[in-house]
Design a protein that fits this description.
The protein is built from 19 helices and 22 strands. With 525 residues, it is an alpha/beta fold. It folds into 3 domains: 187 residues, Rossmann fold; 188 residues, Rossmann fold, CATH 3.40.50; 74 residues, no CATH class. Strand 11 and strand 12 form a beta hairpin. The chain starts with a helix and ends with a helix. The C terminus is likely disordered. One of its GO terms (molecular function) is ATP hydrolysis activity. This is Sugar ABC transporter ATP-binding protein.
Length: 525
């Protein structure tokens, strides 16, 4: 193995007594963490627990206020930045991957570590291509054409390319690899491939800090677990010695509860009716939602469930069919029109379409509640702060300062705001696209409670989710979409993860030609 033995005899990373404050708020208090070489070490905790801050300190993005940080035997100066930690062998793969669409895999990988240059300062393309090929081979992409554009790759391969970029400088350089929520945006069918990738990375010798909120991944792929709560070290334990239930209790305390869909069937008046709706992505979809109804929508990648949500919210043009809201025609020209008619919408991509970047918590919460914060035609900052404070308290957002910038919050707390901003509205229909993607167990329970409360108040809720566990937990029934068509439905006691898995597998089998058929097609070509 390329790591020298002296470096491997010391931990890949060792943090002792780390302290970090943002103003008067202590984010980390006397936290210890050790990651060994050849080890996958999970870092978990509720939103606001400090796990993101700890990872950023170890990566050099934040500077610690106190404590010691040692990478492969070399102490990191207190005022060190990213350049210093990278020089010591720390690499990070972020949730958004940081890849550049529109350029090749070769350019993306080489851009991370730098092109190899000739004596004249020109790019040495043959040498650069060789090093990129070596990096791709380390992550199992030996057969990937490096001239392919990254935006043409499936998501799991994009993750692998980001990991290859992190390893571009060679195995003798990289000591600590921080993987920050790298499966958060993956469809279920691709998560397994990335977990296999993590195991492959482990064998290369670096220590891996695996930051995640998914307990099943922690149990499957990690060797050791560190749990933070309120900025303090709560537990450090071998993965083999714990259960998922213990992890949930440690992370969430007494906040976590199972939504437990009751199996009831909504019998209220129809709220939303779709009759033969077709768009560029949907094909003859008919659906009825009644008062108190919580209906899930499942399907494989590109099944059309997100398109369904956008159509109801006025973001996709209806080519044929009709919609009724409370018995009246609904044909929203745009999202503003949909909101005015009584449709609330939580988009899948909170960073691009959910939060208002560069704005405060107060502004993000009140954007959908402007009627409550106006004096005549003027916006009242006092009323804004009052409404924001009420919603911050109701949804347990951390930090509690309504003037904090939204981009400073953890992903889970941002999502609480994107969902919770609809809490004071009187909407008839709530459409939530992947409402708990990238959040921890406590935030998930809070969002589930919100969904149930709105249904109990008489609204109809449509939950578009790739998590079958989520659908089984919170919904009363579910429909399955395949290539934009509604193909199956399941409800009551039949709404189980196993039954939904069988539905998706059967849909896949029906859509994929047999080997014999594929052979015939190939011969015709």
């Amino acid at each position: 193995m390329a790591h020298n033995s002296a470096a491997r005899n010391t931990p890949a990373a060792k943090a002792t007594g780390l302290v970090k404050q943002f103003g008067p708020r202590a984010v980390l208090a006397d936290v210890d963490l050790t990651v060994e070489h050849y080890q996958v070490h999970a870092l978990i905790g509720a939103n606001g627990s400090g796990k993101s801050t700890l990872a950023k300190i170890m990566a050099g993005y934040y500077q610690r206020d106190a404590g010691q940080l040692v990478i492969a035997g070399s102490e990191v100066p207190t005022d060190a930045g990213v350049a210093s930690t990278e020089a010591l062998g720390v690499r990070v793969v972020h949730q958004d991957l940081g890849l550049f669409d529109g350029i090749s895999v070769l350019e993306n990988v080489a851009a991370g570590g730098g092109y190899i240059r000739t004596r004249l300062g020109l790019i040495d393309w043959p040498a650069t291509r060789q090093r990129v090929a070596e990096a791709l081979a380390r992550v199992g992409l030996d057969n990937l054409d490096p001239d392919n554009h990254v935006d043409d790759l499936p998501t799991w391969q994009r993750v692998a390319v980001a990991c290859a970029r992190a390893l571009y400088d060679g195995l003798d350089v990289v000591r600590l690899l921080i993987l920050d929520e790298i499966t958060a945006a993956l469809p279920p069918s691709e998560v397994r491939l990335v977990l296999d990738l993590v195991r492959r990375l482990q064998l290369l010798g670096a220590g891996i800090l695996y930051v995640t909120h998914r307990f099943e991944e922690v149990m499957e792929v990690t060797d050791r677990i560190t749990v933070l709560r309120d900025g303090k070290l709560l537990v450090n334990v071998r993965t083999a010695d714990v259960t998922v239930r213990q992890l949930v209790e440690w992370v969430s305390g007494d906040q976590v509860s199972r939504a437990n869909a009751s199996g009831r069937k909504a019998t209220g008046a129809p709220v939303l009716e779709l009759r033969g709706i077709s768009t560029e992505r949907l094909k003859n979809v008919s659906l009825e939602l009644r008062q108190g109804d919580i209906c899930g929508v499942i399907g494989r990648a590109a099944c059309g469930k997100s398109a369904l949500g956008r159509t109801i919210f006025g973001q996709e043009k209806i080519l044929s069919g009709s919609m009724l809201l409370a018995g009246q025609p609904l044909l929203p020209r745009n999202p503003r029109d949909a909101i005015r008619r009584g449709v609330a919408y939580v988009p899948q991509d909170r960073q691009r379409a959910g939060i208002l970047p560069g704005a405060t918590l107060r502004e993000n919460f009140t954007i959908t509640n402007l009627g409550r914060v106006m004096h005549g035609r003027l916006l009242s900052s006092g009323l804004e702060r009052k409404v924001a404070a009420e919603l911050i308290d109701r949804h347990a957002v951390v930090p509690r300062d309504s003037e904090e910038w939204i981009q400073n919050l953890s992903g889970g707390n941002q999502q609480k705001i994107v969902v919770g901003r609809w809490d004071l509205t009187d909407n008839l229909v709530f459409v939530l696209d992947e409402p708990t993607e990238g959040v921890d167990a406590a935030a998930r329970a809070s969002i589930y409670a919100f969904i149930r409360e709105r249904a109990a108040a008489g609204a109809a809720v449509l939950v578009l989710s790739s998590s079958l566990e989520e659908i089984a937990d919170v919904c009363d029934r579910a429909i399955c979409l395949t290539d934009g068509r509604m193909t199956h439905s399941v409800e009551g006691d039949a709404l189980t993860v196993r039954n939904m898995e069988h539905l998706l597998v059967s849909e896949l089998e029906e859509s994929v030609p047999s080997l014999e058929q594929a052979s015939i097609v190939g011969q015709k070509r």
